[in-house]
Amino acid sequence: MKINTTTPATNPESIYYQRCTVNLSTGKMEFAEVPCRNLEDVLGGFGRSFQDLARRKIENAYCDENPLIVNTGLLTGSTAMTGLRTYFSGYSPIKGSKKGLPAAMWSTGSGKFGAKFKWTGLDELIFENRSDKPVYAVIKETESGPVVELKPADRLVGLGTHDKIMELQKEYPDAHFAAIGQAGENWQNNYMGAVALSTENQLKSKEDKCRFAGRGGMGSLMGYKNLLALVAQSTDKMAKPSELVKAANLNVIKGGGSARIQPISRGGGGGTWAAYDVLQEFHAVPVNNFRPQGNAIPEKLFRENVEKTHDVKIEACYRCGITCHNNIYEREADGSRGEFLAKFDYEPLNLLGTNIGIHEAGQAARLIQLGDNYGMDAISLGVTISYAMAYNERHPEAPILNGVNFGDYEKARELIIAAGEGRCPEIGKGSMRLSEETGETDYAYHVKGLEIAAYQPESNPGYAWAIAGGHMSMGTYGLLTREGKSDIDSWVQGITEDKLHIVGFDMIGLCKFFDIAKGIGTQMVVDCLKSEFDFEITAEEIRAAVRRAFLRGMALEFRQGYSKDEFRIPAEVYKNPNPNVKLPNITSPEFLTKLEERVWEIFEPELEGLLD
């Protein structure tokens, strides 16, 4: 970026970002230094890309007019801990309104690709139209500035995410990579394609330890464009952190932002896996398509039980001290560490484990690994399979698909392979479409077409107002279970003010664990921006920009045909309350009606003019 001001909130037009627009149908490249319109543009990520998406009228995600926007955040590649994020934005194949229009969406992941991309000198890459042949893009740092080239990708066709990255590393040993799997290549029948991002650990160990930008089908959009991978080549430019940034980074590790997901040896819960222990206290761990049974069965996948049969290795992202990764390995007969299986995060572990009736760690790991290799969003994949299982449980005389039932590992595996290969559109197109085909929509666990994360809707009515997935764009998932808030005032405040600020991390380039409870409008972020760019900016100015970006996303939803009736949690939750969930009832029809009234009273007036 070219920065000619110290006051980005009041003088954003004095800051320019470097953009390259690639016409995939002609191969033409256009570079431009673009002045920022507002602080959202300066911060980056979806705060910038959604403003550009708002300028386009898109009625079908798979059209040449739908761009794929790849960008970073202001602190991507900086000395601020967790500053590794890359953002992929476009109109989503899987998330859409009942009127059939696709929703604007972004997806994000860590790994080192984002930093390498930023260090090439490029801030944003827009892919227009589509190539008539498979290609990959190389973004290179040169003495005269960033260069982008398109290369034939024939040798990559049909490879999984990890194998594509390993193949590209042979030619570009100093680079990092973003790649789709077979699911994205089969975009016609699979709307949940993810983008895999390479990691230092993966490239050194040759084990498939990608990070993923999974939500919303951006990998399928890449597949439609015949763009199979991105390569970022640059020298590393990570400087030593200043005293201000050191203090912020130390606070990230020792403060409240990431304390609960720190390794057990440092007093934490051992990654996001620790959510099992927290939620099981209330029998609120999703089981069998989000219907907890009030028993101890989720405890089979507690960390302490998995460690009895498998090796667990704690690892971290590039230059991150949080160390939240739990990589699972087979254990050999002699007690030594065997084959790498998968990374256990709470979402994929639950949704491809406990929530589909799989309670054996090795089986859950194999399903996670399989979905990762095919390049599918674990959340959408797991929830759609659990819907099929729930349907078959209700209709044993006339089951759908391969007759899959809860706990049937082999048939679940068959469905993942078939979906990844484009042979099972019933799974590949997501739970909303499958439930509309069966005519039984109440127990399809999505909101606005996007499958929900592994937190019971009984504990999180805030899902309804999330703009990009319940746990990444509306931080209310712990408001009841962790903070004990069950009154209407707290929920209105959480949804309309405090908890929406989690989306700010998907603008600025930081992982949410930087300060998951507060968002980016904090003194820590102010200090990092002062150190990195000499910015004079306040936490209040940052919070205002985050709020505008969030509401702009909601305004875009309405423009794409959503009605207020679609801002609802799955109907089974309030039509058939689960007595096994031991939490105060905040999803009764009466509570939800009052919550909707009050939330819209606040949001609705603020939506006016945001897309002008």
Separation of the first and last Cα atoms: 26 Å
**Rounded radius of gyration (Å):** 22 Å
- Characterize the main sheet: 7 strands, mixed
User: How much helix, percentage-wise, in residues?
Assistant: 25-40%
Which CATH first-tier class of the domain at 2-233 would you pick? Alpha Beta
Strand content: 15-25%
Give an overview of the whole structure.
The chain is an alpha+beta fold. The protein has a domain at 2-233: Aldehyde Ferredoxin Oxidoreductase,  A, domain 1 (4-Layer Sandwich), CATH 3.60.9.10. Helix content is 34%, strand content 17%. The strands form four sheets. Strands 1, 2, 3, 4, 5, 6 and 7 form a seven-stranded mixed β-sheet that branches. A six-stranded mixed β-sheet has the order 9-8-13-10-11-12. The protein has a three-stranded antiparallel β-sheet with strand order 14-15-16, with helices on one face. A hairpin with a 5-residue loop joins β15 and β16. α13 packs parallel to α16 (431-438). The radius of gyration is 22 Å and the shape is globular. The two termini are 26 Å apart. 56% of the residues are buried. The model has no long low-confidence stretch (mean pLDDT 96).
